[in-house]
């Protein structure tokens, strides 16, 4: 069964995650993306059986048929949903592209952790507004 809609659970307290959220919203979508803060009441309402603590640690995308994508697979499915990036997503899903996808997600995770350094000691970073 084809995917008709995807929900991206992102960390609303992470400046990188919020930036990528805005980027995704600016792209032409072949598959509609709903962007919902991970760990929020809305996320809990939509997906009561999901481990919401883990969604705050790594990007999670949920398909309208119950599919759950995490980490590199989640990024690939986000790109797959976008008109201008679907060919790149197909390549990233191949054996040749998967190492690149994993390394990109690992690099983003390291940068994300660096952003949550001393300036974010209370667990909340200032999220940037939409690029402008």
What can you tell me about this protein's structure?
The chain is of the alpha+beta class and 132 residues long. The chain contains six helices and four strands. The chain has helices spanning 15-26, 41-46, 52-55, 71-80, 86-92, 98-115, and strands at 6-10, 33-37, 60-63, 68-70. The chain has a four-stranded mixed sheet with strand order 2-1-3-4, with helices on one face. Helix 4 (71-80) packs antiparallel against helix 5 (86-92) and helix 4 crosses helix 6 (98-115). The N and C termini lie far apart (38 Å).
Task: Give the gist of this structure.
The protein is an alpha+beta fold and 132 residues long. It has six helices and four strands.
What key attributes describe this structure?
132 residues; alpha+beta; 4-stranded mixed beta sheet; 43% helix; globular
What is the helix tally?
6
**If strands are numbered along the chain, what order do they take across the biggest sheet?**
2-1-3-4
How far is the N terminus from the C terminus?
A: 38 Å
Protein structure class: alpha+beta
Fold blueprint:
Blueprint: E1 6-10, H1 15-26, E2 33-37, H2 41-46, H3 52-55, E3 60-63, E4 68-70, H4 71-80, H5 86-92, H6 98-115
Parallel strand pairs: 1-2
Antiparallel strand pairs: 1-3, 3-4
């Amino acid at each position: 069964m084809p995917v008709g809609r995807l929900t991206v659970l992102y960390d609303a307290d992470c400046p990188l995650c919020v930036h990528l959220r805005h980027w995704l919203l600016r792209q032409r979508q072949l598959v509609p993306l709903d962007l919902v803060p991970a760990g929020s009441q809305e996320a809990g309402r939509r997906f009561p059986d999901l481990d919401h603590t883990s969604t705050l640690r790594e990007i999670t995308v949920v398909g309208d048929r119950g599919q759950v994508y995490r980490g590199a697979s989640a990024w690939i499915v986000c790109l797959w949903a976008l008109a201008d990036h679907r060919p790149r997503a197909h390549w990233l899903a191949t054996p040749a592209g998967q190492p690149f996808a994993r390394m990109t997600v690992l690099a983003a995770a390291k940068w994300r952790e660096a952003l949550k350094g001393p300036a974010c000691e209370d667990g909340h970073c200032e999220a940037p507004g939409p690029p402008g």
